[in-house]
Amino acid sequence: MYEKYYGFNDKPFNLTPDSKFFYASAKHEEALNCLLLAISERNGFVVITGEIGSGKTTVCRTLINKLDPTTKVALVLNTHLGKKELLTTILEDLGIEYRSTSKTHLLSALNKYLIKQASNDVNVVLIIDEAQNLTPSVIEEIRMLSNLETEKEKLIQIILMGQPELKKKLVMPKLEQFRQRVVFHYHLDPLTAAETRNYIKHRLKKAGNEEADIFKDDAIDEIYKYSKGVPRLINLMCHNALISGLVHEAHKINKDIVLEAIRESVLGYSHIPSEVEGQLPTPNSQLKTEEPQWDELLKH
Ligand SMILES: Nc1ncnc2c1ncn2[C@@H]1O[C@H](COP(=O)(O)OP(=O)(O)OP(=O)(O)O)[C@@H](O)[C@H]1O
Ligand SMILES: [Mg+2]
Known about the structure:
Shape: elongated
Number of helices: 15
Bound molecules: adenosine-5'-triphosphate, magnesium ion
Oligomer: single chain
């Protein structure tokens, strides 16, 4: 849409977890390094939690790209699953054939496969994204998978990634046994103001704007205030601001353009961060006609 106007050769603020755009903030890098270490040490469970839109899936994609070919990955993305469905999903993702869906048969097929991979020095990793949706009994089942081991090492390394609800689930007394097996739990916090600035510049460069100077400092400050450093919200705001910039034929994005973009994007949402609310320009009459609930929304 605005790519040509701003000279991008790619979409700079897509909402997909594209590892090409990975920005190695201290937090994201630490999470990634922990995962790489846990996998290479073959020592069991890792849990990564983080706010909605903080970059968990992006870290996961970047991790998969970094793993060498002697590591096989089963990636589970749909987590509204029962115990057996989870097992069949894992088997199918690893390309393991099974003749019956009895739990004993599924586990035995997985075990045989894992022993064979271990004898060929292949490391197998199970990554479960969106793990906040798993029920406690499915989490228990995942713990049982970590019992597949030799005397020396785990046959399968297991990574759970999820929103903060996962953290809450894991403190349940009935998941004590699971908790005891977690060798590492990392919580991904949002970016700081300085990281937000670097993040935006990094994405601009990756999309082809070498100078990374489209957003003025005051514009980035507003984006940080609105997003509180959550990457998905930063992307959303930058994208909307670039659309507004195009409409105004502005080659540089300043604070006013960002405020306009924020105002337009919060139409339809009931919550506006308090730091931003006071600064929103008064909606003009045209906007009022299009969105009659605007004044109402601002009251909530
Ligand atoms: N470190 C990063 N580098 C580059 N882009 C990132 C980074 N972290 C997050 N993003 C971007 O932010 C957006 C949200 O990231 P992602 O989908 O990974 O978040 P999430 O934590 O998995 O969200 P959810 O809780 O909804 O699953 C994506 O557009 C992604 O590209
Ligand atoms: Mg995700």
